[in-house]
Amino acid sequence: MPVPAAPLANARFTGLPQLADVASGQQVLGPGSQGAGVLAIQSALLDMGFALHGGPDSRYGQHTTRALRNFQAHAARTFPAVRPTGTLDAATLRALDALAPAPGARGQSRALPSAFYDGQPVRVVVALREHRTFLFDPEGHLVDIFPNATGAAATPTRTGLKVVRAKLDQAAAEAAGARLWNDRHVFGVRILDLSWVDGRHSGEELHGTSAPALLGTDVSHGCIRHSNEAVLVLHDALSAGDRVAIVEHVDDPHLGVPVPVS
After folding, report:
1. DSSP string, 80-133
2. What's the whole-model pTM score?
3. Averaged pLDDT of the chain
């Protein structure tokens, strides 16, 4: 006889028959699905910093598909059975069960990036493939995780270690948008201009957006877009000279423990 599937452990997902069926392999949730199980998945993805435009609504639409695919890009590094399908199968649900925070909390329980890049402390890690930005305090503790949008295929965001070169307030961000794109709101309410750590101009920024529905995708000219609410937090938390690591995945080999000082 088949061995019953182990019950889900995270209180976010327990007691929901829809998710029990997914965990046992009896059901896969995807576009068109709806119900309490879908709502629990959406809420978890949002609390983990994945883009979900419009918020949790119990309906499995294109934004849920996108958020889950971004989670799968992340989880596949730790859970090899996970595939970036955008649908919720047993393997993906088990990964969510292990990684999602407890009910009422934000963040992630494990599989987080280090706050060091080549031994140098960083304040921000941008993970391109999962479209998330991790903010750390000066002591290396995780503060929050925000969804982002990154460079399109023709104009990709370049990986490496960068620093905040300048901070632009709302008036300056709007002036830059009007000057460069004839759109005062294209950069949102703040810009954090980035240079390479060696001082070279990067042509990339952390900034807000006038198109929050595109968060979670590759659409920019190389900059890293955030919601206006998120970029306000980043702008207030960071100072000129703070380091920003841009990587493909959170397990990038450049990320790791600090180099001992002799």
Report:
1. TT----SSB-HHHHHHHHHHSPPTT--S-SS-PPPSEETTEE-SEEEETTTTEE
2. 0.95
3. 95
